[in-house]
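Quarterly update from the structural biology core.
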Amino acid sequence: MRGWWQDLTDLVLSAECGGCGTPRTVLCPECRAVLTGAAPSRVRPVPEPPGLPVVHAAARYTDEVRAVLLAHKERGALALAAPLGEALAEAVRAGLRESGTAGEPWADDGTACGDGSVVLVPVPSARAAVRARGHDPARRIALAAAGALRRSGTPARVAAVLRQTRWVADQSGLGSRQRLVNIAGALAVVPGGGRLLAEGGAVVLVDDLMTTGASLAEAARAVREASAREASAREASAPGRRGDGLGRHRAGGRFGRTREGPRAYGGTNEGNGEFGDTTTAVYRVGSREGRGEESAGSTEDAVRRTRGTPGIDGRGQAGSTIRAAVVAAAPDSFEINRN
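Predicted structure, tokenized:
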């Protein structure tokens, strides 16, 4: 209800620029130029956390951009999701253009060729933070970005398959090493989410901001492990794999896949006040902490068998389809050519 009320308030009351406070405009031309005027760049934090995929950012996290992100995230300026989504879409396109040299189905302008598609996977906020804010900022921006990508000819969908599995402290006051410890092992792909990711398309982890890269690295780890489990399950259940007709049963038992996966639906994200252009499939996933976790056991062998496989390796090398894109990143992370 809070999300509905904030959207209605934005429509009825006079707005002010989220970047500089200019009245009667959601985002003034000057602040919009700061947010989306520069070409997105590849960014890399120092120190770089292990497992961080290639990340592209639309803008530096300074002044007007910082104000816009905080207005959307903390003050409920929901109308800013549209320009923030446009900025995120540009960062996604930059990553697709860069990876297009590896022979993947992407044109130089970042649009899809043939059946190419992109899957945006937002990094989830803590449930308590979502309740306090009345919305999930990263998911809302991801939905806006997916709409912008589709309008430019790139098939895009949002797969909200990640969730936090334990309590995580507020990262704002933590250093890079503390953030790594704080977030390590805290994210997981929901049951059935691996099947959604395996349906095809370049997997792009998305967030509004990257500082140390710890959250994106943890999200990439969770996606790789889920992809490895899904690949192993499919291999084990392939017809004739075991010759005894028990491959599918054994794979299902090993990985605890006893529930239906997420279902696709169009329209809004229930409970989070998600609006905008969401006419193509957006996946609704379970996120209640009381649900049982997948009984996967150790995934080291599965991950080792699939090193270098598209969609699993994610180290930014040719053939990897795990990437990341953010609206903004710390200014010093743009200097990626340092020795």
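The chain has eleven helices and ten strands.
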